[in-house]
Amino acid sequence: MGASLARAARGLSVALVAHERRQPALRDGFDARVYALSPGNVGFLRALGVWQALPPDRLVPVHSMRIYGDEPGASLEFDAYAAGVPALAWIVEDALLQDALWQGLDVEETEVFAPARCAALQISAERAALRLNDGREISAKLVVGADGAQSFVRAQALIPADEGDYGQSAVVANFRCGKPHRNVAYQWFQRGAVLALLPLPGAHVSMVWSLPANEAVRVLGLDGESLSREVCRATNEQLGELALVTPPRSYPLRRLAARRLVAPRVALAGDAGHVVHPLAGQGLNLGLQDARALSSVLAEREPQRDPGALRLLRRYERSRAEPILAVDTMVDSLFRLFGAEDRFAARLRNAGLNLTDRLPVLKNMLMRQAMD
User: Fold this and answer.
1) Are residues 187 and 65 in contact, defined by beta-carbon separation less than 8 angstroms?
2) What does the pLDDT read at residue 320?
3) Is the whole model's pTM more than 0.85, yes or no?
4) Fold observed for domain 2-370
């Protein structure tokens, strides 16, 4: 996230502080962590010259999305052709995206401090002073905290955040599939658990399985053949036999919402400001939308205006408040609705999928919002 902001902050002198200097990724195998990027964010990355630096043979367009409820016959499908767009999303591996972002940082306006860690942040009326753990200091008009859910910048700026634990972990892995995926992204709601298969190049898919924490530990401990069989059963053999090609990994799922996105000479972006459940695949998309909005506000300010002025930064905060709240509310509501055990909730959620599938206007509205 920090690298995308550094690339987007044209016309400004930028310093990027990172825990480690990015090393080129090995391209023989697939990264276990992948993202479904919205067309709007693909356009943003293309404008930065980042998209063009990604290997074309590792980018996969999503032409349709099929979502299944936890009762037979409950389903919802989104189709790019019906919506009149080339793709609903693009699947990209995290390691390759980071490579492409970092490739363009060796420009005159960007100074990279890596590996480095922040030790202290002091804010004054005129500027911010950031001290690194090796004693070096950076002085700037604006500090952007794009430093993750445990944000140092957010803590130093005394911005409170509401946090919660979903009690789940996401297990991620990649598989070779027996049937062609045909550029379809699949998702199964399983009474609290959510399983997604995203298309990768060739006959491969990437899995994100959000499970109760104890169940995630069990699944993570399975051998490759056992895990492949279990995922195959859970997906009703939609893509035929599966064979594990990358070892599974897991990470805990939490919810976070910063009370504010800005403070004097400070702005938050990405996971530093908001963390949502991955069931809608909107985490990175929200963060890149932050980068788009903040870089736009900075670019459109009057030439002599202070980029760290609070009144200016509030434009960014206002522009992001509604989209972030909408996604957070939608994702949390879906998580709770599909996790409910009573029969009424089951009928409601599965009927809702079928009803949405029969209402083209509602489907198009949801698609357009997700494609920003």
Assistant:
1) yes
2) 97
3) yes
4) FAD/NAD(P)-binding domain (3.50.50)
